[in-house]
Amino acid sequence: MNLLANPVLSRELRGRIRGNRALIILVIYLTITAAVTLLVYAAAASSFSAGISDPEAGRGIGKAIFLTVMTASLIQVCVITPSLTAGTISGEKERQTYDLLITTLLSPLQIAFGKLASALAFALLLILAALPMAGLSFLFGGVSGVELLIGVLGLVVTAVCYATIGLFWSTVMRTTLSATVMAQGTVILLLLIIPFLYVVISVLTDAFSG
Known about the structure:
Elements: H1 7-18, H2 20-47, H3 55-86, H4 88-94, H5 98-102, H6 108-129, H7 131-135, H8 137-140, H9 145-172, H10 176-209
Helix pairs in contact: 1-6, 2-3, 3-6, 3-9, 3-10, 4-9, 6-9, 9-10
């Protein structure tokens, strides 16, 4: 399957970039991330009495900036990415173009892959847009290039997983609103269940080992 020759991917990418919605999402995303990073920088800088010229203080500030950008990006990826794919198939049903889409020469796999790839391309744009702020941590030290690479890889894997969840509910539900609600609910459920199970297993392990 030729990715570049997929007409669904080309159509979806043009539709996402041409409208004002992509610009608004990108501006809000970067504004929130920059505001939170600035607040953390101010708090971290004021906590060191020796000033930011101290190497240890600089490394602490660098780590604080890096963790803040990565955490803010992770939270927003968890919120935005499922919504990007929740309306891909259900939107075709609402516009009554779904029957025309499945009668084309494209296979169901090509249609689903084109929808998913277009959403992931926009999610990747959001991740890459926040990298300059994460790169500020290199000015202070305390963060290596390997750690940045691991952080970006984790964001990409998270985007792929949650985009797939949104695409699944988009094929199951008949409306975009219901698909979005189910996708966001699934993500929230996963984010709550995993820490809960970790805490329960840790408590049980300590109880039996003690």
